[in-house]
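User: I'm putting together notes for a lab meeting next week and I want to include a structural view of one of the chains we've been expressing. I don't have a solved structure, so I'd like a prediction I can at least talk through. The sequence is below, exactly as it appears in our construct file.
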Amino acid sequence: MYCVNCGNLLNENDDACKKCGHPVKNKQNTNNQEVVRHHNVQQEEKVSALIVSIIGIVGWALIVFIPLFMTAQ
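Assistant: Thanks for the context. Below is the predicted structure for the 73-residue chain, given as structure tokens.
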């Protein structure tokens, strides 16, 4: 892992860069961000599936009911 401020090579246990003193980003925080991103992707997939389902239902209803209304006139 490298310092985001100066590019110095960091050890896994470093809390700050030994060259410039910039604090090292917490690995726990990075893992939490990955979980949040994964959760957001799952939510987007659910919304996409819901939209596709609604479009499918509306399309099916149009295919079924438009011919019924056309023949009723």
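A couple of points you could mention at the meeting. Helices lie at 27-72. The two ends are 74 Å apart (CA to CA).

User: Perfect, that's what I needed.
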